[in-house]
Amino acid sequence: MTAQIMVDLERVHPVVDGRWHxxxxxxxxxxxxxxxxxxxxxxxxxxxPYSSAAPLATICWDCDLEYRARxxxxxxxxxxxxxxxVPPAPRxx
Length: 93
Ligand SMILES: [Zn+2]
What we know:
Blueprint: E1 15-16, E2 19-20, E3 34-36, E4 42-44, E5 58-59, H1 61-71, H2 80-83
Parallel strand pairs: 2-5
Antiparallel strand pairs: 1-2, 3-4
The structure holds zinc ion.
Zinc ion binds at residues 21, 37-39, 41, 60, 62-63.
């Protein structure tokens, strides 16, 4: 018997430098596997409990902008990635 953990790949958002990014995943990447985010970051995968990253992370607006473009989602002209006013990521304590 196995315990199946179901993962919705649309809800997998890799955290890099305190930001929630997006990536187009075709499967669950293994630890150490390299993925590329929609904003172009290439990073190795590491798995951690959700609670260890959530309080610190903020959205990657560049990934959000690219995700919207790929899915035909409207983007307002004041989107932070368009204005160049993306706030800095929070720093871990
Ligand atoms: Zn990103």
